[in-house]
Description:
By secondary structure, the protein is mainly α. It has one domain. The protein has helices at 2-7, 12-15, 18-22, 31-35, 41-58, 61-73, 77-92, 97-121, 130-145, 154-167, 173-198, 209-220, 225-247, 256-269, 282-285, 290-308, 311-318, 327-342, 347-364, 370-379, 391-397, 404-434, 443-446. Helix 7 (77-92) packs antiparallel against helix 8 and helix 10 packs parallel to helix 16. The radius of gyration is 22 Å and the shape is globular. InterPro entries: Na/sul_symport_CS, SLC13A/DASS. It is a multi-pass membrane protein. It is found in: Membrane. One of its GO terms (cellular component) is plasma membrane. GO terms for molecular function: succinate transmembrane transporter activity.
Amino acid sequence: xxxxxxxxxxxxAVTALVPLVLLPPxxxxxIDGAATPYANPLIFLFLGGFIIAQAMQVWRLHRRxxxxxxxxxxxxxxxxxxxFILASAFLSMWVSNTATALMMLPIGLSIIDLTxxxxxxxxxxxxxxxxxxxxxxxxYGCNVGGMGTLIGTPPNALLAGFFSESYGVEVGFxxxxxxxxxxxxxxxxLIYVALTTVYPxxxxxxxxxxxxxxxxxxxxxxISKAETRVAAIFALTAxxxxxxxxxxxxxxxLSDAGIAIGASLTLFVVPSGTKDRALLSWDDAEKLPWxxxxxxxxxxxxxxAISETGLAKWMGQGVSTLEGSPVLLVLVCAVALIVMLTxxxxxxxxxxxxxxxxxxxxxxxxxxxxxxxxxxxxxxxxAFMLPVATPPNAIVYGSDLLSIPEMSRVGLWLNALFIIxxxxxxxxxxxxxxxxxxxxxxxxxxx
Length: 447
């Protein structure tokens, strides 16, 4: 399965169904055992996140949020780049990075085209780097923003599902943000500095920039009742996710997945206020990326089989000779491996294939499985060099306004930088977020 995922010999979602076919005949588990991980609570958390994001897209709330952020930051060339990074990152924490990139790209292209035209009217040429920087700010902001929340990108949810399925340990929404959010806060300025250092903007003002943003906002009109209601449900859901550890004492059984599905059901019930329909219809829901949910299930089923057969323990014992190696060195190597692989393969498939291995390796080294798994899952979002690495990279490359060498020139530096940043921040915060103690295997992983 790992080979098929990495090579994409079959569609990734189709490969995810292999455990249902092979595990029972191989006497690894029965069909119930193979199928149960496909209904893991983390899959329903991500399903709920997909549905909320779809409602934002249906009513164009995500576009209003993005334009509001860009307008707030300002339209001087450095400010507009910062605005695009912030807007792309914030939306990617809640909406798929693919949808965010597709929404931000036309806005960016409009600014580039109008700037070129206005400069031509003055008899001036467009600085060669402004368009490159603006487009890459969209892609890189989308890539990094997803690391901030558990539903921001599939590798995050895969990690939570892996620990739930293999070790019976829950990773909460707020718990993840203890690591993910600081990483995003640190990463975004680094992206801006790297982009503007490798490609100086060389543009003092953005002619017509204010007019573009004002025109885009005018096309949206005043905020509708539907947008207001979706925004309220989204805000309440995010608040419940972040405060659930406190609310669990008052509401027994409250879970992140339950909150997500509750919000999703609400979207199908609450009227839009502008048409004879609810905020969301099943026709809208049919457009969700159902294949990603199958991939989650397949990855978790494979991880469960690896654990139950003793293969994980065997892999861990195989690396026991590395025990005593510097922990940071092992961490850097693990993150670097994932980052490099993600440049040429799906980050979701890479994470699904490697999480069981890294968990076993950590135990074999006498360490908490979180120690290797968390940085690796985060590293899967840090591929900046090639268009094939992530959907946002491919989307901005498809504009034909930048080349692979232009993307790789700054992407190589960012890859190297983020290997260090992800390793360092995760190492520093995992004790707070997940109770990791160096040189100690927790009881739930020792069995």
